[in-house]
Amino acid sequence: MDTEPPPVIDLPLAPPGRLGPPGEYPRLRRECPVARVRMPPEMGEVTAWYVTGYEEVKQVIADRRLVRPSITAWPAPTEPGEGPGLITVMELDGPSHLAVRRALTDAFGAGTIRRYTPRMRRLADGLLDSFAEGGPPGDLVAGFAEPFPLLVMCDLVGIPYAEREYFLPLADAALGALKTLAEGRRSTSRLRAFVTTLIERKRREPAADVLTHLVRECDSGALTEETVVSFGLSMLVAGYRTTTMFLAGAVFTLLTEPGQYARLRDDRDLLPTAVEELLRYLPVMNGVVVLLATEDIVLRGHTIRAGEAVLPVLAAANRDERVFPDPDRLDLARAVNPHTMFGRGAHNCFGAHLARAELAVALGAVLDRFPALCLREDNPPSWDDESPAKSPLTLPVGW
């Protein structure tokens, strides 16, 4: 039986001009770890379950009765003909989900990524060479944090980096669906066409990349064509943007937390724990993971009905004082760090090894190249204060 209905709150956002986290997190975790939240007006008159407690978030992201909807499935379309579904690997379930994850085990496994790391470092150094030639000063987001994860993704997966001016606007429209839902949905047909054409190109001109591997798996009958399309769409809309946001947020945080940039610069043995701590500490994912209940679920005495949406707030769970001592302090040497940033169970991110390696390589390269890096006092970073996902849009620096 349900307890007293939880309050309905506005979607918490970080204070303007700041990384965050939203100030509501501690009270919600303490008083109402399972709340109801109003979604932005652009999404219509919809509410969702907003989960902020660590244990509750862990339970939600491991529950197979909760699945990722595509942007064409939730909120329900109000207009017909908004384009075909944008189904990525995250929204696949059942046999298709298991098959593609099995096919990606080696490609994104720890050993493969470890062998690929020297190549990543060369890509990072090449971008930083070009960035350094243009300054100081310079915008580290435009010059490095944005192109580096994209370049790595294209190189590893087999998506032509040279064609980014075509696919990036489409991918951004899909990724920004929380704010421009109709535009995001309309972009899907062109994204799908791009991926389908790319798959045919890999059949004609195979290469040593992940997409070619999946095309061979498809042609052998291990995967369906639609599953390979879903993987391509995953890479275009989610294979690099989150890493860009974490990288930009990480450098910003290291430069604004007194002494942290210098500490990591002078003690590289800290880099592995520093990466994990930055993943925990940075409040990038402020409730933008959406799951739909496939059947009624009881959570903390509340019944989540089939078809209702749940937002597990990973950034709030990662600041839970019941799990992380002194959670609002950045501790680059934090030894015990069971953060939730890569999900759990069926919702665990298959690119976790790659994301960790990208952050470590990128930070190491920046620290080596710019030991005296600093923020520009006369030109502060810019922010998108309307988005629940938060990172600097620009990061003016000197060196």
Quick description:
With 399 residues, the chain is of the alpha+beta class.
Question: Which term fits the overall shape?
Answer: globular
Give the class from helix and strand content and strand pairing. alpha+beta
State the CATH architecture: Orthogonal Bundle
Rg, Cα atoms, Å:
21 Å
The CATH superfamily is identified as Cytochrome P450
Residue share in helix: 40-55%
Q: What is the total number of structural domains?
A: 1
Strand order, main sheet: write it out: 1-2-3-9-6-4
Sheet with most strands: 6 strands, mixed
Family: Belongs to the cytochrome P450 family.
Biased composition (Pro residues): 1-19
Protein name: Cytochrome P450
InterPro entries: Cyt_P450, Cyt_P450_B, Cyt_P450_CS, Cyt_P450_sf
Describe the structure.
The protein has a 6-stranded mixed beta sheet with strand order 1-2-3-9-6-4. A 3-stranded antiparallel beta sheet has the order 5-11-10. It has a two-stranded antiparallel ribbon with strand order 7-8. Mean pLDDT is 88; it is low at 80-84. The protein is globular and about 60 Å long. It has helices spanning 25-31, 54-61, 94-104, 110-133, 140-145, 147-157, 164-175, 181-186, 188-204, 210-219, 225-238, 241-256, 260-266, 271-281, 314-317, 352-369, and strands at residues 8-10, 34-38, 47-51, 66-67, 138-139, 291-293, 297-299, 302-304, 309-312, 374-375, 396-398. The N and C termini lie far apart (61 Å). A hairpin with an 8-residue loop joins strand 2 and strand 3 (47-51). It contains 16 helices and 11 strands. It has a single domain (8-398), classed as Cytochrome P450 (Cytochrome p450, Orthogonal Bundle). With 399 residues, the protein is of the alpha+beta class. Helix 9 packs across helix 11 (225-238).
